[in-house]
Write a structure and sequence with these properties.
The complex is a heterodimer of chains A (about 230) and B (about 190). In chain A, strands 4, 5, 8, 9 and 11 form a 5-stranded mixed β-sheet that branches. In chain A, strands 6-7-10 form a 3-stranded mixed β-sheet, covered by helices on one side. With about 230 residues, chain A is an alpha+beta fold. In chain A, about 30% of the residues lie in helices and about 40% in strands. Chain B has about 190 residues and is α+β, with helices and mostly antiparallel strands. In chain B, strands 2, 3, 6 and 7 form a 4-stranded antiparallel β-sheet that branches. A 3-stranded mixed β-sheet of chain B has the order 4-5-8, covered by helices on one side. The chains are: A alpha+beta (about 230), B alpha+beta (about 190). The interface between A and B is large, with 103 and 105 residues.
Amino acid sequence: MKKFLIYLLGAVFVIIGVLMCQGTVVQESSDGSGRTADYRGVDSLPMLITQVRKCSKLYTAEYRVHKIVTHDDVLRLKGSVLQREFNIKLPLGDRKIAIPIDAKLKAWIDFSQFSERNIERRGDHITIILPDPQVTMTSSKIDQQHVRQYVAFARANFSDAEMSAYELQGRTAIIESIPDLGILETAQANAAKVLVPMLTAMGYEEHQVTVAFRKHYDAADIQNLIKMED
Amino acid sequence: MGKSFRLGLILLGASLLIVALFWLRNCTKNDYLELGADTAIDATPTQIQSIKAIGEWEFLSVSLEELTDTVRKGFFSDDELSRIYYGTLRIGINMHQVEPGWLEAEGDSVSLTLPHVALLDRDFIDEARTKPFFETGTWKPEDREALYRQAHKNMLRHGMTKENLTAAEDNAREQITSLMRAMGFRKVTITFRN
């Protein structure tokens, strides 16, 4: 009898444990059918801030870039005992994660300050002098389906805060790589593709139109032309 | 003799102990012990997947922050995940969608027929900038994807309002008129086609 009670208690604990792991509760539904209710609904709290800005930006080049952010999270015991430094990799303490990020970079020209000063006319020839193109990361997307992680038995899973910190570092690394991508040169060439048809429609011949920029940009200039939105 | 010898030994032992303690204290004053892991990501390349020539003219930008959360009911306690997403809706005119004869100039007059202002790009969330707000329990990538989609939907609802579209169209009219005046046209007519 005693043994039976012990087995019964054990079975009850196992059932409770399984239910907790599943995160699902069997609950009497409103129509009394006793169906399993899965509470995985997504709600949204009210929006925090909205900022509306008038502008006049002509986006002329779009680069889609891809980066796999990886992090090798090795747990280490570091210290110093009796003035002897040590740094030991702990066994069963490895965690690894790979997060693929897709981002869109767009180069644009600000037309909000465009005026007669940007136009030079010599006879039947017109030159449009454009302001410096600038670059913005307009969007980024984590490829959640292809995020891969390995977590050793003795470690906790990567938390949302940890993953977000790695993603932010990946975003910064993408922005830092912009000067190597040549996006400003592409933006300059593409600006002519938008403006020349407009000017030919106004009555100019293609050979009468010149779209000019201030200068050739070096790495220091490019850093100043990257616009962050945070 | 025996008593004073023992006293001497005790004094010597005590002195040695004090010296040893001072030596140990001196040796261990910079000692530390910490358990931790490096938080920096590895250096990996950024690859260009595509380059595209575009002609998107933005006249209004709506920057949004969206706090989105999901709750999973448990037996004893609920699991919760809250994240703050950031996005910018860019409203304007896609110049690649203008039709032939969209600009007609005659003397000092110009007439432009433009497509209506619209959302220039449906990819507007900067997910890598997302801030984690609160997390309890274990969450899968599918849960984060669902949160992203919810934030995307909410941002569209909050940002693509009739007021914002009207403001974008008004600003487009103002900016293009100003540009045409700079080009030397005195009379500018702008029509947004249906």
